[in-house]
Amino acid sequence: MGLLDILLGRTKPVLPDLDQLFALPSAAVTLEAAAGFTPTGTGAVCFATVEGGAFEQTHREVQALLDADADRDGPPVELSQDEYGYSWLVSRRSPGRLSELVNDLHAVNSSMEVNGFGPQLLCSLAGFQGEGGRRLALVYLYKRGTFYPFAPLPGGGQRRDNALELQVKAALAGDLRMEQDLSRWFPVWGAPGQ
């Protein structure tokens, strides 16, 4: 960044740091101690779908790589689309195997990035659950290299538990690179993997 950039108020965009995902298992310990949330064993990577053979080939390779894992619990990796047309690659592990879920999420992101589809990556999330059916997702924003909590209120509808989200942000500040701009805490209503 040069002097002219500083004078004109231009900043360089934050580069994604996929290794930040590996901090999730230690953050999960803090999250359980601070707020009583434990991993669900489900996570997902969201990306904008691209038409074309190269993208389809990359998607098939990633899915085959993750499905080949002999230690996988439950159903194979699945692809779904949300109501906005974004694609979600969902991985499921037993709740006690968060490290392996993180490896899955990292592998998907890395494969997409290596094959030139990094600009299509939007976010990754890992699901957590608390008492009374409360849900929480820790969402990693690919283009920002930061995390934020998303906590829908129980009972359906599109309302968030903002107090819980701020509590989780404060609790995990030492474990994860948290997104400071609250306007970037996008709701991920109905996202697979929550």
Automatic annotation (TrEMBL):
Show the InterPro entries listed in the entry. Answer: PspAB-like (IPR054383)
Highest taxon, organism lineage: Bacteria
Protein name in UniProt? Uncharacterized protein
Q: What organism is listed for this UniProt entry?
A: Streptomyces guryensis
